[in-house]
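Structure ticket #2291
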Amino acid sequence: MVTFSIFSINVAHADSTDITKYITESWINTSAGREIKDGDTLTDSSSYEVSYIFEIPDSVHLTPGEEYTFEVAPEFKYQTGNSPIIIDSIETGKRIGTVEIKDGKGTVVFDRLGNDVTLSDVAFGIGFWTGIDTSKLDYDKGNDILLPNENDSKNTLHVNWKKSNRNSTGQSMLSKQISYNKDDPTDLTWQIVVNNAEETYDEAIIRDTFGKG
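Resolution: structure written out below.
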C-alpha cells in the first residue's frame, strides 16, 4: 500500500498594487533643513524636500517588474521627467528598483535580485525636491497635505500658505536618494539628479542642505 499526503504552503502576496500602507514615515523639510510642523505657514513659490520611508514586511512578497503605486500629495508639483529615481535598500545599500512620480502618484518597479522571484523584508527611502502647485491651494483655510505613516496611511499635515510676489514655475530643481553600507553606517551614498524639469538656466549655482536623518 502506498500512502501520501497533500499539503500546501501559503505565501502572502501584496493584496493590491498600492503600497502606500507600507510607508512608515514621511516628512517635509524647508530648504534650510527645518522639518515642517502641523499648522506652519509656507510660501507658495518655495521648494520643499519631501521624504518617504517604506518597510515591506517579510510576510508580503512583491513581484519584480510589476508596477506598484503609492499616493503623493496633489499639492506637490514634482515630476520625475526622463530620469526615474533609483531605489536602494536601506540595509544593503544596493539598488532594488526605480520610482517615477507623476500626477499625484508614485510608480515603483522593483528589480529582480539574483534568483529571487519575489521581493520581501526590505526597507527603502524615496526623496525629492518639489515646488507647489498653486492651483491646488486654499489660501483662506490652508491644505491638509498627505503624509502617510505606519499608523495611518491617510495621515495629513495641515499647512497654511503665504502668496509670493515673484513668479515660480513650481518645478523641482533636484531630487536625491541616500543609501548606506550596513557593514559601515558611516559609508553613505547619495544619488542626486539636478534640474528634473530640464529648464535652461544661465550661470546656475546649486546649493543643497542636509535635512533630517
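Closing remark: The domain at 20-194 is CATH 2.60.40.1280 (Immunoglobulin-like).
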